[in-house]
Structure formats: structure tokens, C-alpha cells
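Record 1 of the preview.
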Amino acid sequence: MSPVGRTLDILLITGQSGAGKSIALRTLEDSGYYCVDNIPASLLAELVPRIGPSIAAPLAISVDTRSVGGPTSGSDIAALTAQIDHLRHSGHAVRVLFLEARPEVLARRFSETRRPHPLGDPARTLSETIALERSLLDGIASQAHRIDSSDATAPQLARWVRDFAGSAPGHFNLLFQSFGFKNGAPLGMDLVFDVRCLPNPHYDDALRPLTGRDAGVAGFLAATPEAQAMRHDIAGFLATWLPRYRDEPRSYLTVGVGCTGGRHRSVWLAERLAEDCASLAAVQIRHRDIERDNPK
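->
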């Protein structure tokens, strides 16, 4: 039993400045989380026992980037990791969500909003500050579930956060993300499979406007020996090695599946792999490029 008398579901939010932490926190608040914003990392272990007994909802805490990205970042990251371990050993279910984006996207966002970067310094350019912050946060990023917001709209990012928040704490979460290499590979992938070698439905006039979720494209690829062999080999690899990833220990694995445009082959294969691995982990699917083209 934890010191607050019960187990809390705690979701820590951190990441690069400008990557969408505010959107993530608002989304969680709308989803019923009790949210605390901009807590210094050093106060994390004190906060939970203080507020835990008074709340019934799951707890979302946004960790102040400046407290883990300052000049003593190395020791601060170690201290934050130790506090997370302490909370887990106290019986709480703790997950970490890390928001990130490509450097040029972050620079554009700061230029558009005209807001100063939290780690800004007159001696550094904005690009240098973004690169510095990223290097300082690598230690916590490696322990977290990462979401790349570079090409996401605000509603799309909110949906991804809701999907992650809804996954079962304490379980091993496996995310398959399809994408198109022509739009750039997403950040934060643990494994990436390039499936551009498979026959391309794009060259069939009837299939071109469809996606890998449509029956026509699915039938085309299912009838292709190469696509079935690719599916079999990747599913076998994951079945063999997922237990080892789980034993690291880690709670998440993100698998990227990329084709040229991110609409046909990668979408179909991500869907099939999610089916194949449904008994091995809590599975999620994200189709970056068709979701971007058809936002809900």
C-alpha cells in the first residue's frame, strides 16, 4: 500500500518547449485527470503524498522543463528518475509522456508566437537553445513514451494523448505507427521497418485514392507473397523479442512502419501487425499521414 493509502495512476508530462505540453495537459484535464502544471522536478516526491489523499481522479503532472533542463541537468535528471522509481516502489502506477518535435518546427512555433524560450539566453540563438534543451532532456526521453508533434494538428495531438492516457498503466504498450518517408520519418521510434520494397497499390488507378484500411488495398496486398512474407517475418521478430524489451524494464515500444507516401503499404502492414501482436501487449495504432490528411 502506498503512503497516501491507495495506488494512484500518475502520468508525468515533460518534453521540449513548444512541443505541445500545454495541449496535452488540457486534454488530460478534459478527460477527467486532476492536473498540476509546471512542478519543479525536485518537488515531485513531496507533491504526491500531499495531494493524493484528497483526489479521486488519476493525476497528471507537467514537470517544469527548466527544472530538468538547467545547468545541472545531469544531476536533475538522475534525481527525477530516482523520484519516479520511489513513487513506483511506493505502489503507484507511474507513466511518463515526452513531447518532442523537429528543431525547425520548434523554431517556427516560437517565431510565430513571439514567446521567449524558457532556456533562452542572449548569448545563444534560438536554434542553439533548442538543441541544448534537447540534449539536456535526452536522459528522461529515453525512459518515456514519446510523441512527435511536428506534423500534428492540435486535435490530432489531443487524440494521441487521449489514446495513450487510456492505455492500461502497468501493462506493456505497443504502438504501431505508419508513415511516409516522403514526409520524413517520425521521431521517437524504437524500431523502424522500411516496406517500400513491397508492390505499391499506388500504381493501380482504382486503388490510388484508397488507403491500407480499405478492402481493395487490403486484398491487393494480402494476395502478394512478398507482403505476406514481410508480415510473417516482422510478427515473428516481435513475438521473439518483445519479452526482452519488456524485461529491460520498459513499459512502451514504438514501431514505425514506413512506405513512400504513408497511405497504402505501411497502413496495411501496421494494421496486420497490430492484429498479430494483440495477445502480446496493449496495442495502439497511429497512421500519421492519413490522419494528417483527414483530421477528425
